[in-house]
Design a protein that fits this description.
It contains 5 helices and 4 strands. The protein is an alpha/beta fold. It starts with a strand and ends in a 10-residue tail after the last helix.
Amino acid sequence: MYKIAVLGDRDSIYGFATLGLETFPVTDPDAGADTLKRLAMTDYAVIYITESLKAQIEDEIEKFRDQKLPAIIPIPGVSGNTGQGMVDVKRLVEQAVGSDIIFNNDN
């Protein structure tokens, strides 16, 4: 059975444990990249990652982009929404259908 993980700074992710998700607090990008690799090689189908951590370990995340699992999904942290999650969704939709059907513009 697949599991769901949440990766990021403690303050941003600790609430997800109440939903039954497994949380993995990290304090620096190196620990985040190592934890992501470890989770991706096991039975985690979805890994939520804070936008700020995602920005710091983008090279490591790119290694998993062409794989079906895990789905690595950015979420806002306590510092707020950077908008990176929506940019990623827009890019993936454009890649899948060949045009921007969400915004219908060049944003």
